[in-house]
Design brief:
With about 300 residues, this protein is α+β, with helices and mostly antiparallel strands. The chain has 2 domains: about 5-130, Serine Threonine Protein Phosphatase 5, Tetratricopeptide repeat (Alpha Horseshoe); about 145-295, Jelly Rolls, CATH 2.60.120.10. About 50% of the residues lie in helices and about 15% in strands. The protein has 15 helices and 8 strands. The strands form 2 sheets. The protein has a 4-stranded antiparallel beta sheet with strand order 1-8-3-6. A 4-stranded antiparallel beta sheet has the order 2-7-4-5, covered by helices on one side. The longest helix is centred in the middle third of the chain and has 26 residues, at about 110-135.
């Protein structure tokens, strides 16, 4: 029943009774109910539609708009953010951003919305970087591993601090390494001039105590880089690194590093970005404190 027919039925004769307010009329659409300002009924219908189909973006946005109209800003924000996240997961970052920006203009004091816009912009940048990195690995069998573990890799700072050109130069020169659970990557004191960027898994830095038992200093996961002092300064490894779970790593040799640095305008700045986490220095200090606390 179109809204004009419904309105006609309210005034026509023939024994017809106008529908009761509060009862959802089967012939009325959500748009009709909104036009009639029967918002509670419109909300009920929209909630049912959205529950059946989370991918019905039109209904979800209409639901969010109706929440705003009925002064339910919290519910509106939740629905808008959910739709924006769905857009982002499908690669439509700009659509998600535009949606949140629209809501932010209506609710200018909601810091959550500003934070969400920033997060969507970052996600778009990182997705572009993922595409660039994976494309640079064309022909390498482990290119798919980088794509699969990208969300773990970007937990660390390296992907964001390097430029696109630096990423394109660096990644094809890395060596893919698999390390089974319980296996040792490198022993404390070993002079292995190589750093490792963790793709996935958990890698523990361990030292042996005076009593002969081994203790974990800390654990490293996806996105962390270890071995920077061994790579840059040829220093001995400050701890034994052992896989707490199956790990996938990308190794950077001195030869590869030298090749990456060819043409760099600021070689020192580039090296500083590679070792931005400073994990080796922290481990050296942790070992020093631990040794100092041991009974003599």
């Amino acid at each position: 029943m179109a809204i004009k027919d419904w309105l006609s039925s309210m005034t026509s004769g023939g024994g017809k009774t106008a529908p009761r307010r509060g009862a959802v009329d089967k012939g009325l659409s959500v748009d009709d109910l909104i036009t009639l300002e029967r918002y509670d009924e419109a909300l009920a219908l929209l909630k049912k539609k959205v529950a059946k189909n989370k991918g019905d973006y039109r209904s979800r946005i209409l639901l969010a708009d109706l929440y705003l109209k009925t002064k339910k800003s919290g519910e509106a924000i939740e629905e808008y953010v959910a739709v924006a996240d769905r857009y982002a997961s499908e690669g439509f970052f700009d659509k998600g951003y535009a949606l949140i920006a629209k809501l932010s203009r209506m609710l200018p004091h909601e810091d959550k919305l500003k934070a969400k816009m920033t997060a969507l912009q970052r996600a778009k940048r990182l997705e572009h970087r993922r595409q660039v990195v994976v494309a640079s690995l064309a022909g390498k069998l482990w290119a798919v591993e980088v794509g699969q573990h990208w969300n773990e890799l970007i937990r660390g700072p390296l992907i964001e601090v390097l430029s696109l050109d630096q990423l394109k130069k660096l990644f094809p020169l890395l060596e893919f390494v698999r390390l089974e659970e319980g296996k040792t990557l490198v022993e404390r004191g070993e002079t292995k001039n190589m750093a490792f960027l963790i793709l996935s898994g958990e890698l523990a830095a361990q030292v042996q105590l005076a009593a002969g038992n081994t203790t974990d200093l800390r654990s490293f996961r996806g996105g962390d880089l270890v071995g920077d002092s061994a790579l840059f300064q040829r220093a001995p490894w400050p701890a034994t690194f052992r896989a707490k779970s199956a790990c996938k790593l990308l190794g950077l040799t001195r030869a590869a590093l030298q090749q990456v640095m060819i043409g760099e305008d600021d070689p020192k700045g580039f090296l500083d970005m590679i070792r931005i986490q400073g994990n080796d220095q922290e481990l050296v200090e942790s070992v020093r404190q631990l040794k100092a606390a041991q009974p003599t």
